[in-house]
Amino acid sequence: MQAITAFFDLFRGVDALGVASRLTLAVIFGGIIGIERGRKRRPAGFRTYILVCLGASLAMCTGQYLFTVLGQTTDVSRLGAQVINGIGFLGAGTIIVTTRQQVKGLTTAAGLWASACMGLAIGAGYYECAIMAFLTIMVTITVLNYLERVLTSRTYNMNVNVIITETACLPRVLDKLREMKIKIYDVEVTNVKEFKEQSPNVVIEMRLPQRRPHIEIITTLAAIDGVISVEET
Question: What phi, psi does 207 have (nearest 5°)?
Fold first, then answer.
């Protein structure tokens, strides 16, 4: 452990070697996370994550330089705090609410915020923390993504978005759910203009009587006459 710490100490200074190593590491770590997000067609991808992590790292390097080299009696963490505030606007831009009442982009926004924090650690020369943060972020957005799908695929509560040809098909959908002993909490119908608009969206919140694969419910609803598509939200 002491050998590892001694090795990292070579790159903690504000000289050219220290700054270059930090910015390079920010580009590598931010880029790898961005590639994973880009492969899933998320709003923020490869270049966005690089710039976020790189900018945060640069802010901390600048703060350290002002204090160490120029002798400015300022709070070294002030620039880093502004990065955390500023990243909120960027993250908000990746969150959208679709026409099917789905909120998307939360993981991307959280990933940007976490990448900015990782960049601050890199810029401060806290390499040990940055490496552990990078590994943790990668595990969260890859391995835990699969685990989350497994856990939520058999829960009692379930929300579906059903697209039907006309509002007259809605009673058939609700009757089928009641036949399956499913408790319906809420039904929201959208995209209906003067009750004559075809293909309205129906968002149904419900609770299953027992644990069962959600795909069974989706398949049953999709087989109903007049149902165009069924999607879990």
Answer: -130, 130
- Sign of the dihedral defined by the CA atoms of residues 25, 126, 93, 205, in that order: positive
CA atoms in the 13 A half-sphere facing the CB of 78? 9
More confident residue, 18 or 207: 207
pTM of the model: 0.66
Determine how many CB atoms are found less than 10 A away from the CB of residue 107.
17
Does residue 70 carry a pLDDT above 80? no
Q: Which DSSP state fits 211? A: -
CA 125 – CA 205 distance, rounded (Å): 49
Alpha-carbon dihedral angle through residues 7, 50, 31, 2, given to the nearest 10 degrees? 10
CATH code reported for the domain at 155-232: 3.30.70.260
- Nearest alpha-carbon partner for 81 in 38, 124, 45: 124
**Above 50 in pLDDT, residue 28?**
yes
Residue 212 to residue 84: CA distance in whole angstroms: 42
Strand (E) positions, 119-226? 157-164, 183-190, 201-207
> Is 180 a residue whose pLDDT tops 60?
yes
The residues spanned by each domain of the chain are 2-150, 155-232
Structure tokens at 225: 């006459």
